[in-house]
Amino acid sequence: MTKTAGIHHITAMVNDAQRNIDFYAGVLGLRLVKKTINFDRPEVYHLYFGNETGQPGTVITFFPWAKQLKGRIGQGQVGVTSYVIPKGSAPFWENRLGKFGVEFTSSIRFGEKYLKFNDPDGLQLELTERDDGSLNTWNFGGVQAENAIKGFGGAVLFSAQPHKTKYVLENILGLECIGQENEFLRFNSEGDIGNTIDIHLNPSVRGLMGAGTVHHIAWRAKDEEELLRWRSLLQDKDYYPTEVRDRNYFKAVYFHEGGGILFEIATDPPGFTVDEPVGELGRKLMLPSWLESKREELEETLPPVEVRVLEGDK
């Protein structure tokens, strides 16, 4: 059976691009690894944040659009995005969140302590300590490598039909169900990051797409050959996957699983250095070849943004 290593990326929707950069780069210390546009709506940025190289399993991406309505987190969505931090770094993050006025709470799930908080648009995030995963070598502002977010710990899925989501995780993606605790069902994949998925069995309300919600979660495929095998399996199982779409930095197919969540399967290659060297990632607006002729028009339309060290770190 073909098995995914875990999460490839998570994509969410927010209102303000600069506020988004200030939080994910300035507060959380992630690297802006790609500044491009939504290929389907080129008047909207597509911003990618991850570890130093934008390794699969570390990247959260955003469509920031000021005019979109506020969404509501609920059934049929990724409810919580989990990040993994180095062992012993939780006190650092408690202090850092407090310094920047980010309210947080603590909880225990499956024996792990989680720091839970929201980003400025209301996306639900959490941090947990684990030995798994390599250290993130990116240093920025007040976040140094010994405390830096390594990548995804996983995600909490708010499924409208948990048993149908469970089927896809186990029988399509190859995750293993390792147990239930209270209202959470836990699954593990074979990767060392982005490898722990919880299904919330009793989400309270129906989700509404909009700012402050996750648009989709993407799972890792080793290459295009593996992606095509998954697409064939999805067709055989009547999940109606899309055609393979070229996103420049990976190729992907999309489908809705039975619990209403939009899933994507994306290839690890070619990665974010296909059009920029590692040292220059995220500095320039990168456009696909078919939009390069509209660069001047797009740069005038898109709001100016920058990655900046925040006052609290100066």
TrEMBL record:
This is Ring-cleaving dioxygenase. The lineage of its organism: Bacteria, Bacillati, Bacillota, Bacilli, Bacillales. Residues 6-130, 151-268 form the VOC domain. It comes from Neobacillus sedimentimangrovi. It comes from the Bacteria. Pfam families: Glyoxalase. Keywords: Dioxygenase, Oxidoreductase. InterPro entries: Extradiol_RC_dioxygenase, Glyas_Bleomycin-R_OHBP_Dase, Glyas_Fos-R_dOase_dom, VOC_core. PANTHER family: RING-CLEAVING DIOXYGENASE MHQE-RELATED. PROSITE patterns: VOC. One of its GO terms (molecular function) is dioxygenase activity.
